[in-house]
Design brief:
The complex is a heterodimer.
Chain A lengths: L1 H9 L1 H38 L4 E5 L11 E2 H11 L4 E13 L5 E8 L12 E2 L9 E5 L12 E4 L5 E8 L3 E2 L2 E6 L1 H10 L4 H6 L3 E2 L1 E4 L3 H10 L3 E5 H6 L4 H33 L1 H9 L4 H33 L10 H28 L2 H9 L1
Parallel strand pairs in A: 4-10, 6-8
Antiparallel strand pairs in A: 1-12, 1-13, 2-11, 3-4, 3-7, 3-12, 5-8, 6-10, 7-8, 9-10
Helix pairs in contact in A: 1-10, 2-8, 2-10, 2-11, 3-6, 8-11, 9-12, 10-11
Chain B lengths: L2 E14 L2 E14 L3 E5 L6 H8 L7 E6 L2 E2 L5 H11 E4 L11 H11 L4 H14 L15 H14 L4 E5 L7 H18 L2 E5 L11 E6 L2 E4 L1
Parallel strand pairs in B: 3-8, 3-9, 6-7, 7-8
Antiparallel strand pairs in B: 1-2, 1-4, 4-5, 9-10
Helix pairs in contact in B: 3-4, 3-5, 4-5, 5-6
Classes of the chains: A alpha+beta, B alpha/beta.
The structure holds adenosine-5'-triphosphate and magnesium ion (MG).
Chain lengths: 374, 225
């Protein structure tokens, strides 16, 4: 501590530069992580926002909402087994709509649910939909940019159904397309119009994509036993199965991992060069009786101080950046992610200092004196 | 009389390109407390090697080194570090101060490593710096000091932990004649006053009158002339 701090005080410029570089690396790591998390959230926001813990899907649907089809009979049996209040039907359909009177096509995902369902998101502008006003929908705020406002009529290209925008919700999307929330009756109409599948006819009612459930582990097991024909999928599995999600996250993870690897390599080399420059100083310190362990600790501590300080500043910078980022650029850095990334960064810089510590242990007092006297 | 530094039959050979070169050959030396011994000899005769062995920086091929009665041979690295810290004071030719520590911090570091308590250390550092005429420079960094001042700081640092033995390798080489004389005079005084055994390697004939004994390193042995 004694040495580490005094050295930084003495060579302020040099250590400020080092800190600046660590700061930039830390900023990059945090920023990319934030963007990756942002994209991940944006991709599946609507599903992530739901209070459900599990989804009941059709067997063989590969956990995909868009492939799964469940009928009303399954819904009744699920309600009977898990309790009515814990079960909500959910319809998911990706489609193309146009705002009435314009030619512009918009890719959206229709999410059908009961108007008073706990799946229904909070309205940020306008009013909620109710069974008394059929034909009204809630849409994601992002659609505002395309000229849709309260009262705009949108037309589904596939079914020709028309809906009126009653309100906006924020941060609602599925597979990166903005979400449109329909009431139960509209969803039923939609199913009928778009030539319901053979199963629907067999079941003689509306079909949904999945049944959202609030359940703990025991209840989930009970459901699985009660509904052998269906599959109980956890929320995270369902999210992973959203088209494109896994691939996108795979690439982003790759980027983050490489960023970490490269950053630790850069920092390691950086510290190493600084340490080599100080070889003769370490030699003198050893010659006058400083233990190697003390010097090694001092080097590691210095790295720790520098990276912690840089990290704190870069967290502030990232937060500032987050505030000025446009809406269309999803960015999300939750406290837990932030803490994890910071911990990883500190670990990484400590790993980077290992090379220097090793070098310090290898310095021979005698060599250093020979060099100093030369 | 107590001998705080004793070398018995110290032999050292370097392997150099497959060839074995005997540098020190059954060298014997005893330095009494309060005594300053000068060691002279042609370049390459092994003076620095001898000093490194006496200073626990280099293990001899064979032979025994006793510091304050304690043998160096067979000690672990940490124990050797601690010995250098507590029993030895080194003064090198140059560049032996830590560039980022102020003069008084150079001394405080040694005290801290040696586990001296802070008030004692502060008091002792002040006293040493006053004695060596460095009181007004105590908050200066080494790069702002003259060569002579730097060497005096090195002496003060070497004395800080009250070591048994002082070892100086050409401490006057970078100084002018009168400064060189001052430095050696201080070494001699410190050795005498504090009862230390001191060895000074030098090429400078002018400082010899200040030393109690003058030895010449020739063919691996120390001879009196
Ligand atoms: N690590 C080493 N490996 C091989 N030979 C060495 C090594 N260190 C020193 N020598 C050789 O040992 C001899 C004595 O070296 P040393 O440095 O002790 O001489 P010196 O008397 O201090 O010389 P100078 O007056 O020039 O400082 C020299 O010939 C040197 O080349
Ligand atoms: Mg020499």
């Amino acid at each position: 501590m004694y040495l580490a701090i005094r050295e930084m005080r003495f060579a302020k410029v040099r250590y400020s530069l080092i800190a600046a570089i660590i700061l930039l690396v830390a900023f990059l790591v945090l920023f990319v992580t934030g963007l990756a998390r942002g994209l991940a959230y944006d991709n599946a926001a609507s599903i992530q926002n739901m209070d459900a813990t599990h989804f009941i899907m059709e067997k063989g649907s590969n956990h995909r909402f868009t492939r799964s089809e469940v009928g009303e009979s399954l819904l009744y049996r699920a309600s009977a087994s898990a309790g009515e209040e814990n079960v909500e039907p959910l319809g998911v359909k990706m489609t193309t709509v146009t705002a009435d009177g314009t030619a512009q096509k918009l890719d959206v995902t229709l999410l059908g649910m009961r108007a008073n369902s706990w799946l229904m998101p909070a309205v940020t502008e306008g009013k909620a939909i109710s069974p008394q006003a059929p034909g009204e929908v809630l849409v994601d705020r992002k659609l505002k940019d395309t000229g849709i406002g309260l009262g705009t009529v949108i037309v589904d290209q596939a079914s020709g159904l028309k809906w009126t925008v009653a309100g906006f919700v924020s941060q609602e999307s599925f597979s990166h397309s903005p979400a449109v929330f329909l009431g139960e009756d509209q969803w039923a109409q939609l199913q009928r119009k778009s030539a319901a599948g053979p199963k629907a006819e067999a079941a003689g009612g509306t079909t949904y994509s999945a049944i959202a459930v609030k359940a703990n582990k025991t209840l989930a097991n009970k459901l699985a036993a009660a509904l052998p024909a269906a599959e109980i999928v956890t929320k995270s599995d369902a999210v992973s199965a959203i088209p494109g999600y896994k691939e996108e996250q795979g690439s982003l993870w790759m980027m983050i991992v490489f960023l970490f690897v490269i950053a630790s390599f850069v920092l390691a080399v950086f510290f190493y060069v600084v340490t080599i420059q100080k070889t003769s100083q370490f030699g003198i310190l050893k010659a006058i009786g400083t233990r190697t362990a003390y010097l090694a600790r001092s080097v590691a501590l210095q790295v720790l101080l520098l990276s912690t300080a840089s990290l704190i500043v870069s967290v502030l910078l990232v937060r500032a950046m987050e505030a000025v980022l446009p809406d269309g650029m999803p960015f999300q850095l939750q406290l837990s992610t932030l803490a994890l990334t910071c911990a990883a960064f500190i670990l990484m810089s400590l790993a980077g200092s290992l090379l220097s510590v090793w070098k310090v242990t290898r310095i021979d007092a005698l060599d250093a004196i020979g060099r100093a006297a030369a | 009389m107590r001998h705080r530094l004793i070398l018995r039959n110290v032999t050292h050979a370097f392997e150099d390109g497959g060839q074995r070169r005997m540098i020190l050959d059954a060298l014997n030396l005893q330095v009494a407390e309060g005594e300053l011994v000068a060691v002279m000899g042609p370049s390459g005769s092994g003076k620095s090697t001898f000093l490194s062995i006496a200073g626990a920086l280099l293990e001899p091929t064979s032979g025994e080194v006793l510091l304050d009665g304690e043998a160096i041979a067979g000690q672990y690295k940490q124990a050797l570090s601690d010995m250098r810290l507590r029993k030895l004071g080194f003064i090198f030719q140059s560049a032996n101060l830590i560039p980022y520590l102020k003069v008084r911090e150079q001394l405080m570091l040694v005290a801290k490593l040696g586990g001296m308590d802070k008030t004692n250390a502060t008091e002792r550092a002040r006293e040493l710096l006053r004695e060596l005429g460095l009181d007004h420079r105590r908050n200066a960094y080494p790069d702002k000091l003259s060569g002579g001042e730097r060497q005096r700081v090195a002496i003060a640092r070497a004395l800080m932990n009250d070591p048994a033995v002082l070892l100086a390798d050409e401490p006057t080489a970078s100084l002018d004649a009168s400064r060189g004389m001052d430095v050696v005079r201080m070494l001699a005084e410190e050795a005498k006053e504090r009862g230390k055994s001191a060895v000074l390697v030098t090429h400078d004939e002018r400082v010899l009158p200040l030393c109690d004994r003058v030895l010449y390193l020739e063919n691996g042995c120390l001879l009196e002339k």
